[in-house]
């Protein structure tokens, strides 16, 4: 009953060694998780990692979103090796003594934009692509100096579909259009994709989310949040990628504001509890995720796993947990633009703090 509660109450873990993991050739892999991949870094439980996460959409405005190191990185990975997914991943990180059945607790401490610009692509996999005459459109955003809000800088239409991960486009000044005048978007940096290697031979696409994590696209996976990933292979082999500076629930056009981030996190190996899916803890909530090709089934999966949290880790009866979910849990659509749909359900941690009064 106490294991999740103890986990999310953030028991102090003495910081271990500090590692730096730059996104350079040899430390990245494009489009996949792979249990057979050579680790880019080896750490122990409690160690801190300062890692670079580079967006695969930096080419939507290379002058604004690419520095020399990012250009070199893109040039180092041939297009035919960017598959079967699309996300540029940093890692994997091998965690000493991690074994299948353990949980990897990842405490995200800070996420700082690498540059002041990001890109949103209204893509052919977007939910309303047909309603926009099957036309793709890029909107470039600029982050203010305080990194609190972003505004649309300009937009342009793209004739060719985004089929090559890391595509580099150059929009002539005359083709640029004004966009979202007078609108400011809250900046909330987060990772769209992160997770451990699945127990599968060969490459596993970064696009669908699942038990291992992957492309969850929940904007709450930012600084101050903790994720728990079920370990599937020795060493866990944890990777991060798909950095965003803002996104709404649903990610309706197909992408967020895609922009590179510098991420600081601590990895803690947990052998004292298990959970069937990626579990998110924020300062106020537990958030459980459900995934499936069908959105209704994704909703059901999220509900069943929240039922597991409330019964097995909070000690409620199934009937009490079911009632509580209906009156206090908030279900939301995380994203509808991957091959696997996502639903998340939030449960406030505060409601368990009040003593009973007869």
Automatic annotation (TrEMBL):
<dbReference type="InterPro" id="IPR004304">
    <property type="entry name" value="FmdA_AmdA"/>
</dbReference>
<dbReference type="GO" id="GO:0016811">
    <property type="term" value="F:hydrolase activity, acting on carbon-nitrogen (but not peptide) bonds, in linear amides"/>
</dbReference>
<dbReference type="Pfam" id="PF03069">
    <property type="entry name" value="FmdA_AmdA"/>
</dbReference>
<protein>
    <submittedName>
        <fullName>Formamidase</fullName>
    </submittedName>
</protein>
